[in-house]
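User: what does the whole thing look like in 3D?
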Amino acid sequence: MAHDHSHDHDEGSALSDTALRVRALESLLVEKGYVEPEALDALIDIYEHKVGPRNGAAVVAKAWSDPDYYARLMDDATAAIAELDFTGRQGEHMVVVENTPDTHNMVVCTLCSCYPWPVLGLPPVWYKSPPYRSRAVSDPRGVLADFGVSLPDGTAVRVWDSTAEVRYLVLPMRPDGTEGWSEEDLAALVTRDAMIGTGLSLTPDQAAAAAAE
Amino acid sequence: MPNDTSDQLGRQIASLPRDEDGPVFREPWEAQAFAMTVKLHERGLFTWNEWAETLGAEIAAAGPDDTAENYYLRWLAALETLVAAKGTLAAAEIAERKDAWDRAARATPHGEPIELGRELRADALKQDQPHG
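Assistant: Here's the predicted 3D structure for the full assembly of 345 residues, as structure tokens:
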């Protein structure tokens, strides 16, 4: 389950009352054969994009278009994202990490699945999976290859481990050939995976091909 | 088919927070509660009318000042109520399991997944230790 335990205790973890109730129900229903965890995950997978990678895409597109906003975002992402009314309920601190030709950033939560819900919505199933959580750290280039991403040899990969208190959002590189584009058009190039760092922004050609499908 | 069920759900419960294409969730537990409900309905444990009535009663009991943010809290309460009413899970059983998860979480060091059974191992360790 996603980030529902706090990391700020020295001993043990604590789950919220709501999280405990949900876990109690789910574990009993699974044990008694009423639901299958895979089926729950599959259903959630259908909806996960509904909360909203679009919020994050709007943040990225604005940062690409507006140098002042970009500066505020890099300086204090929590406040800059709140400007667009995308605020979390738990007061988590947002940090934006910027991709450059030299550095590619990738986000993971090795502990559970801490994730910037207000900007990216529900985490995808793979983000919560133990293989991603461990391999993102031990073999980030291998994970990127699994996602079909190959980076130039000269590009370093930096992995950021989220916590309940700090959530990271990757600011992908703006694709070439998008000079003068509106924020709305730019946002359409920003995929969820690009903002987790397991993907890149779409090129204009890729976006056109995706739209034509 | 999940899509059929969710469409049906969207039509029958007009107040479900949703965008143009389907329901949305604010937090993962909401999705878990949502998904469990959909799956239990698919198994025929209750009808959507029964679900809507139960959820409606929870929302009504919360009063007119309740916020949309609390929607899935009501949803979760309705799910607990309905599985108890249907005899699927006893209320006492749920309470006992919730307590077990609480103790398991507290017995789980950081960096490790919270799993049931940890609370039992922690209890055993405590008993092994001499009293000061």
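In plain terms: Chain A has two domains: 14-47, 52-212. The mean pLDDT of chain A is 84.
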